[in-house]
Amino acid sequence: MRVFKNLGWFFKLEKKSYIIGLFMLVLVALMELVPPQVIGRVIDRITTETLTSNTLVLFGVLLIFVAVLTYIFRFFWRVMIFGASNRLGRTLREQLFEKYSKMSPSFFGKRRTGDLMAHATNDINAVQMTAGAGILTIADSVITGGAVLITMALTVSPKLTLIAMIPLPFMVILTSWYGSILSRLFRVAQAAFSSLNDKTQESVAGIKVTKTFGYEDEDLKDFTNLSDDVVKKNLKVAKIDALFDPTITAIIAISYFLSIFFGARMVVADEISLGQLVTFTTYLGMMVWPLLALGWFFNLVERGKASYDRIEEIMNTRSEISTKISTNSIPSGDITFNVSDFSFPGEDEVSLRNIHFTLKEGKTLGIVGRTGSGKSSIIRLLLREFDTDPGNSVSINGIDIKQYDIKKLRGLFGYVPQDNFLFSTTIRNNIAFINPDASLEQVQEAADLSYIHQDITAFPEGYDTVVGERGVSLSGGQKQRISIARALMNNPEILILDDSLSAVDAETETAILSNIEQNRAGKTNIITAHRMSAVRNADLIIVMENGRIIEQGTHSSLTKARGWYYETFKAQSLRRDLTKELDETLEGGGNHDD
Amino acid sequence: MTTDVINLTLKDQLRVLGRLLKYTLPFKGVLALAFSMLIISTVMGVMTPYLVMIFIDNYLTPSVFPEEDIMWLIIAFITVNVLAVVTTYWQIYLLQLLAFKVIQELRIDAFKKIGHLGMTYFDKVPSGSVVSRLTNDTQAIVDMFTSVLGTFLMAIFMVISSFVMMFILDVKLAFIALIFMPLIVFILLVYRKYSARYFSRARGLLSDMNAKLAESIEGMKIIQVFNQEKRLQREFETINEEHYQYNLRTIKLDGLLLRPAIDMIYILSIVVILSYFGFLSFETSVTAGVIFAFIQYMERFFEPINQVSQNLNIFQQALVAASRVFTLLDDNRHAPVQQTKDQHEITEGRVEFKNVTFSYDGEVDVLKNISFEVPPGTTTALVGHTGSGKSSIINLMLRFYEYEHGDILIDGHSIKKLPKEEMKENIGLVLQDPFIFYGTVTSNIKLYHSTMTFEMVQEAARFVGADSFINKLPHGYEQKVVEKGGDFSSGERQLLAFARTMAPNPKILILDEATANIDSSTEEKIQASLQKMRSGRTTLAIAHRLSTIQDADEILVLNKGEIVERGTHGELVQIKGIYYKMYRLQNSEQ
């Protein structure tokens, strides 16, 4: 029941709907009591030959009245209670989405997308069921069940009611017993089904191997065995599942038998009339559903509680990025890194050590080094995906970036991520991500700068081409260039290219870089790259290895130093020339993306 | 964003249902038994009110209770109910049994179909959706069979039997009661029309919403860096709100047309019954038992209608699922079929390509007039850029795709005419990305080979040099392998795949060299074992690193589907063409 207390805020919010809904349920229960009474009375009057056409018409009108009212009340409780529970689903979904969008990357790093999705789908569903069907089942059991029971006792006979009720608890006991066996068997069946699922997945993924070895038939046999197992385990479920209806039938029949057997005696003894007996048996039929609902209710609440706990756990998780704001100024100025050491949360290994440098405003920084040398970690700190520990700082204009409003800080950046994540929408919407109201001209301008305009216009749908699973598949180079266009959209103060030119060929790289240089005078750029050519013109180049800076300077100073940068640059230049030569032979000078 | 929800027309639904029902034909016995149980349980169901009626009218009203008669009535009551309980149980169980048998057939058919489909199909259809056809969609059909079809059948039987009993009791009133029939049918038709629309729209919105959520989780970093959280929230809320509105409409529609409406009609029908008997009682005598029984039958008549109407949506979804399964079954992108059953044999393993021209889509030729020969026991290497056609050569050779122009011969026989078994036994393939199955080390080497002994497995592992790492595993050859071999390094996975390929001792070897970096510890071992595998076998190798095939007997350089250079390493370096440039380029790598 704790789940109802935890959901108290919601019931308070929807007080009106629930009160009206429950009131309607009470009215429905009362209305439902009328027809059996009328039936009994009409039968009595017919058997005693005291029926007049006036009373008959009166009864008829009463029943029609009851029918229409029941209809109306039934309609409204549904709208009230199910409407409210759907609003709960909507609200929780909204809250969860908002929560997710406030969380830092380490939150997402620790959790799988599938689990986060499950909270928003299955868990919310279960909670919604508790607030809808859960409320309904308990209300129905208590209100309808109680009303019928009291009416049976009051209007017919308390003794007969007691007798007729004797078998009914067995129904509750038996059905909930089946329920517990069933949930165990169901889990087993579910496990068999998921092995079948895994098998199918593997067979489809490994289809080439199977086909080459010619084991299609053997694979089928294996699949058939697993499928047999699924059938076998599901039939075990079916064996128990099929017990529900007959059990209910049997218990009701016993109850029925008892009522008629003892009821008939009472009729003979003139304790009740024949009509009352008929009324009584009709009421008896109305007791089945409230009793079953009681069993359901506990099941629903149990599931709802577990689900709501999971949702609350997420809602109570705090983002690891502090949102304390100590200055309201818009960050601008030189960027200074003063990081003696930095480790990602939960990792022992030190990811960055002794990173000290200053990038003057409006200048370009190049960061090079091998994979895993710490290039991206520098970017991640600047973007505040993670915060530095005390004693270390990343600052802009001498103020630690933690003190700025994170929104304002992020407002500075145009960021191109390594993985070129694009959303499954049109290319235009992807480029205009930061400003959906941007004109097509603005979008094209950005696309032009990143050398993707021509590729886009070559698609049949142009800028309206949808990317992703449901649309065209783009090459890695095309994705990178669209990501660059997206970052260039609002002419950001700081442009960050995180290994974002790896999949474009040498000429395109040069062209994009020179576009950036020409169009971004006075603005800051940060470029990480594997290819030295990408940072050649940077005002400051730092060379990373194992989380440390091993060389820093400009292209010319580093060339003079003849260190790692120089060696790599030389080797890459040679390779670049050779590639060009080979491509010219193969294509007559075409480019090959990817 | 578009949604995947399919709406079938009534005609399509009937066609799908018909085809689905055909699957029950092989289980005539179960079907007949289930039907007889259903008939008995319905007949028993309508007997109870009848017995009570007899009791009320013949004994209770006149207040005479001859002991023997009452005993018989009690016995009849008990018998009827026991029979009803037992047959109800078996009827439900048998229908479930039938459902699972049908699904079993359907699943096996679908899986068989996957074996017959060609790579053309798998290129186009994402593997996730193939899997979902076989599992989730078939599961949806189970739900239809068990809950929906069972309910429908029972409903039909109950409605008919109740009507029959009403006719027996009072023909005139039964006819009057028939008035409600068209009304109910009308309500259900209206309901079906709107609910199908709202339901599929709501489902579509839900899947859009989930897609949006999943994507936002994946791309949260970008959303945050670009300060777009608020906008994405607004977009999400828009769909969320629309979804809620459609749900509300569904609730209102249910409230207007389902149980509340049917129950209202039920009460109205009681008004009709009472008025009829009431007015009748003014003229002739009417018994309480008949009224009682009639009302009971009326209730039995309405209850199944309620159940059916509540299951209509599940039914429609199941038909959509079934239609998707049938689409898979009807797909005709089959794998190439061997043409004759001639008993040609592969003896030496001479491979010959003769003027082969090939296109995947019928428009762009990816192979243009390719001819070459690989003498028995020699190695031919294929070299070229991505898209040069080297993978296509292997795809054709392995019969993943059918070719129309030119021919590929092994020992002088066209590979189209070689028996399948002969091909599989004599051609070994090493894939770029070694696929490791769930199971054990042994099962991964042996696969489904029926006659391979453990010694042969060990021998193969030893031969390729995989034994040293296998022996170090805690359970050796019986070590469990997780999905995709996640516990092994890429090099170890590669060695395992080598052992699998070499175990049947093939005469012809097809190698697709890994592009990905293999951990340096096993790199040498892999090269050594490749060397060993190739010796004495006809080998067709795709090489990404030229250093690995320098000793090939012939190297073919492909560009845009054509062989542009051919010769040994030495010869090709001499002519200073494409191969030479590629070679220099690779040598320049650090």
UniProtKB/TrEMBL annotation, chain A:
Keyword tags: ATP-binding, Membrane, Nucleotide-binding, Transmembrane, Transmembrane helix
Domain ABC transmembrane type-1: 19-303
Membrane topology type: Multi-pass membrane protein
ABC transporter domain boundaries: 337-571
Keyword Transmembrane in annotation: yes
Residues that span the membrane, as ranges: 56-77, 133-154, 160-178, 242-268, 280-301
GO MF term list: ATP binding
Highest taxon above the source species: Bacteria
Localization (cell): Cell membrane
A Pfam family of this chain: ABC_membrane
Signal sequence region: none
Role description: May be involved in multidrug export. Transmembrane domains (TMD) form a pore in the cell membrane and the ATP-binding domain (NBD) is responsible for energy generation.
Protein name (record): ATP-binding cassette domain-containing protein
Protein's organism: Jeotgalicoccus nanhaiensis
TrEMBL record, chain B:
Gene3D superfamilies documented for this protein: ABC transporter type 1, transmembrane domain (1.20.1560.10), P-loop containing nucleotide triphosphate hydrolases (3.40.50.300)
Residue span, ABC transporter domain: 351-585
Database matches in InterPro entries: AAA+_ATPase, ABC1_TM_dom, ABC1_TM_sf, ABC_transporter-like_ATP-bd, ABC_transporter-like_CS, P-loop_NTPase, Type_1_exporter
Protein source organism: Jeotgalicoccus nanhaiensis
Membrane topology qualifier: Multi-pass membrane protein
Annotated CDD domains: ABC_6TM_TmrA_like, ABCC_Glucan_exporter_like
Role description: May be involved in multidrug export. Transmembrane domains (TMD) form a pore in the cell membrane and the ATP-binding domain (NBD) is responsible for energy generation.
Pfam families: ABC_membrane, ABC_tran
This protein's UniProt keywords: ATP-binding, Membrane, Nucleotide-binding, Transmembrane, Transmembrane helix
Listed transmembrane segments: 29-50, 70-92, 148-168, 174-191, 265-295
GO terms assigned for molecular function: ATP binding
Upper classification of the organism: Bacteria, Bacillati, Bacillota, Bacilli, Bacillales
Name this protein carries in UniProt: ABC transporter ATP-binding protein
Origin superkingdom: Bacteria
Broad class of the protein's primary localization: membrane
